[in-house]
Amino acid sequence: MALRGASEITWRAAQGRPGLAERIGDRVFVDGSPAASPARVMGPVVVGSRTYDGALLISALPEGGLEARVQIGLEAYVEGVVASETSIWSATSAELEAQAIAARTYAVATLQQRSAGGAPAQLADGVMDQAFGGRHIPGSSSRAREAAERLTRAIRATQGVILLRGDRLEEARYHAACGGHTSAFSDIFHKEVRERRAQGPTGVPCPPCSRRAAQESVQGSPDAQRPLGWIEELNPTTLARVGRAFGLPGAPRRIGPARTDAGGRWIDVALESETGQVRRVPFEELRRVAGYSVLRSGALLATVPRPTDPLLGGGWRVQGRGRGHGVGLCQEGARDLGRAGWSSGAILAHYYPGATLSRPDPADGPRVARAADQ
Ligand SMILES: [Zn+2]
Q1: Is 4 helix (H, G, I), strand (E, B) or coil?
Q2: Full domain range(s) for residue 157
Q3: Which of 76, 99, 207, 259 is deepest in the core (most CB within 10 A)?
């Protein structure tokens, strides 16, 4: 949860009863009385504008302040993630189901990895894990209620279903929009490959993004709120930060691709210093340093200056397409494929080639089937 380091936390519990946790010394006090750590408030509980169906756990942080976490069942968590990660108003059941299975797989796999040391594992509610805004609260219109029912049905229809690659959980990454071709897990998640020998999906063409990109280049963005194309500029201050982050004496003099993938995405970037020293770094690292909202993806179409020309102390202007790391399910693509009548199994088989779906079956244990068969 975002509540980390606060000096007090307020909530509303059952029947709207207000609650207050404060930190006094090293202890947590709930409604004026000393509480165990973590203090436990039974759900459902409303914190700010969010409603959580799990218990609220409040603990004192060693560095000061309080931290609130929510202990919640997997399916309620997945429903909250899907509500945050998709535009549920316009989503088809297939898109919601595909997103639910990817989100569930990611959650189960990540919790397994983080609990390897025996400590209780948790997931963050932001971009580093998955967006999670608690229970979806629909508006009062019939359309809002229908969307909420469709969401709940998608969670029930896929209850417990996860993606496997061989006998391991799939690296079920997903992203907002690939721009025309997804990236290979092994090209983007180097640390995971190195440390866990993780294997994930290869890159695949994404016809819906290619179609949207072609439309945008002819008539401008057909979906003005979420265009695939973007243009950003890294100013000299950001470039100096980039240079320092990668051990150059100052801002790079030249920036160009050191390696691109089948879809043209920059996988590694070469940063050349004033003195001709060249640092080759993963483009995702450059994105992290420059800002994910600035370098929205590695699918770059053009830069000014061009990779062969020097920056001459000015900015670096970048034209790109898509949003996110590009691995696994493309949310923009899944939305269009769902509308075109694809099933959730077919969508997942496309973006996670070689993965299988495992459905829990109380009668005879997990059953493994090819994603495309679902
Ligand atoms: Zn796509």
Answers
A1: strand
A2: 74-211+326-373
A3: 99
pTM check: above 0.85:
yes
Identity at 333, one-letter amino acid code = G
What pLDDT, in 10s, does the model give residues 220-255? 665 556 789 999 999 999 999 999 999 999 999 999
207 and 102 in one domain? yes
Dist. CA 371–CA 374, nearest whole Å: 6
Q: Copy the structure tokens of residue 304.
A: 């000014």
CA of 178 to the centre of ligand 1 (A): 4
Asked if residue 217 is part of any domain, the answer here is no
Give the residue-averaged pLDDT of 272-290. Answer: 96
Cα 330 to ligand 1 centroid, rounded to whole Å: 5
Compute the distance from residue 111 Cα to the ligand 1 centre, in Å.
Answer: 27
Cα of 210 vs centre of ligand 1, distance in Å, is: 7
Residue 220 falls inside a structural domain = no
- Calpha distance 124→345 (Å, rounded): 27
Report the separation in Å between the CA atom of 204 and the middle of ligand 1, taken as the mean of its atom positions: 9
